[in-house]
Write a structure and sequence with these properties.
The chain is mostly helical and 98 residues long. Helices cover 80% and strands 0% of the residues. It has two domains: 1-40; 42-98. The model has no long low-confidence stretch (mean pLDDT 91).
């Protein structure tokens, strides 16, 4: 039969493992939710890429530069940097998920 000193080691180890389990479960649950949300915007990201790499973005940029767009647009024309950064981040995340 184990003495109290030996049992205290077991209790300490079990407590540490319980903490690790709780943390891992929490992180994985959040990751699972984030992955579902990420997948739900994947079509939007593809639409943004198609917009940015097609003629429409260039046409919209020209209108913006000419001052022909209304001032109440949230961003005016989506900035090249913003779209490029988003697409680059998406590529990075995508490769990590594979």
């Amino acid at each position: 039969m184990a003495d109290k000193k030996d049992i205290s080691k077991n209790i300490k180890r079990i407590t540490e493992m319980e903490e690790k389990l709780d943390r891992a479960q929490s992180v994985l649950e959040k990751l699972s939710e984030a992955l579902e949300e990420y997948q739900s915007v994947s079509k939007d990201i593809k639409d943004l890429e198609k917009y940015y790499t097609g003629k429409n973005w260039k046409e919209d940029l020209k209108l913006d530069e000419e001052g022909k767009l209304p001032k109440d647009l949230k961003r005016g024309v989506l900035s090249e940097d913003a779209i490029y950064d988003l697409l680059d981040l998406n590529k990075d995340i995508s490769s990590k998920l594979k």
